[in-house]
Amino acid sequence: MAACMKLGSKSDAFQRFCTTGLPSDVVVEVGEMSFHLHKFPLLSRSGVMERLIADASEQEEGCLIQLPQIPGGSKTFELVAKFCYGVKLELTSANVVHLRCAAEHLEMTEDYGEGNLISQTEIFLNQVVLRNWKDSLKALQTCDDVISQAEELQIPKRCIDSLAAKACTDPNLFGWPVMEHGGPMQSPGGSVLWNGISTGARPKHSSSDWWYEDASSLSLPLYKRLISAMESRGVKREIVAGSLNCYAKKYLPGINRRQGASEASNNRVVAPLSEEDQKILLEEIDQLLPLQKGLCATKFLFGLLRTAKILKANPTCVSNLEKRIGVQLDQATLEDLLMPNFSYSMETLYDVDCVQRILEHFLTMDGGGGGGGESPESVEDGGSQLMGSPSLTPITMVAKLIDGYLAEVAPDVNLKLPKFQSLAAAVPEYARPLDDGLYRAIDIYLKSHPWLAESDREQLCRLMDCQKLSLEACTHAAQNERLPLRVIVQVLFFEQLQLRTSIAGCFLVSDNLDGGSRQLRSGLVGPTNEGGWATAVRENQVLKVGMDSMRIRVSELEKECSNMRNEIEKLGKGKGSSTTWGNVSKKLGFRLKSQMCSAQEGSVSKQNNNGGNVKIEKVVRERHHGKEKRNLTSDE
Q1: What is the pTM (predicted TM-score) of this model?
Q2: Do residues 95 and 76 lie in contact, with contact meaning Cβ atoms separated by under 8 Å?
């Protein structure tokens, strides 16, 4: 319940026409409202009314006084008139500011009666309103209507200082705002009271964000002053950022569009502001947000950036938001990056340029410099060392995020090759332990842009490193007709090299394990190494399982290669048919696979190591020969 102070003792019989039984001798006009009153009660309390009545009495056509500039208008003057007549009225936090300003305007000082309106309102402000959170907040809200007069009396400053002091203090120390928010009454010892009896139960503790919703009800100028006052008192930056988050979500509906239903329901949105007011609010929030990383959720920053682009905010605001996001890009999700293009040109479906600027800010802060930089650590063993490095984990996450973004925007036919290449190349090479994600994005782009020239395809494929493709990606790339022939040959070569190295390593480990087992069985290892014996047995079993699976894989590849050879030989018998030649050329992608298997077969049987390279060259010659045959057939 809001605090109040009762003034006057007479019954409330006062209206626009005073019902004292005496005829009215003065008419006071306030705006469109006229009050038929008496001279003596007014001039005995107000210096302004005394002078106005004296001047109006000299005129012949009755006593008419106009008060167009009185703070609070006719509603406030009605309360002032009641005070002058001694009629009962209540001072509350909702009317005390207007009454204080009106009393100052009418010069209702102690010179015109003891306990005049100025002194009464000041006592109520200082002893009641400013000691209470809710009443201070309500009084500050009413200052908007009479801001110029209230500023002269320093009422907003006093209310803001009171609110800032309470918000910066732990509410659990004093039992508020629990009691002020309708919570249970407490005993002096801090326990909850029920019908005046202590229950022994303790009230729930309040979190540091208890004042966010209340502060968001203030107008922007007053809210800014409250935040500044709190910062000057040393409040934590994350608390300020949380309050700004709450304020923005309440007045900028565009931020809540991608939230879940439960989260959006918690943010009570008031009547929407105009687009111009929303733009001003967004630019002010950008100025108030702390610059420290991690204080604001990345999703919230993306919401501000998306809204800033829709509202055509000034370039400085947009640039600041991009920098804030760039600092913590590793915390973003793919959904966050997929921002529609709001420019007039609408060249692309998504705003790729904005994502590239954000990535550049991240690389600048991270120290990555730019794309193509050398790794500060080794990139051997498929990037295992990178994944274990804490300092490179954020940039590795960003690389994976950008590769996913490239795959999403690649189907856009309006996305030019230089823009796609620029974004892909901006990620340093050492940030990608594997290039599978980049290969997928490139493949989607080639599929959606079939008109690209062979030189452009080769230039695009140079972005990925064939040595950093997994075995599954190599298998897919070897059969991918969209890739240039040079890239397929590189993929086949490194796939053969990878398999050959893996198989050779398995045989080497097997030989070492057999020798170690013989030593253990011969008793060369002392009885004190029982723990080492058990460990060696377990490692032996694990490695044997891995070697067996590798042998099974090689056997499957041999069978697949044999089947493909038979199929190609059957197709090759009908050389007179142009359709047959076309089918043979389509199968050349699988022929590359068979040659890869032949190379592995030669590795297992310890044959000549150059056999695989000779077979790859043979595949290339056959593929070119097939193209020439197709051209001759089409010419005929």
Answers
A1: 0.70
A2: yes
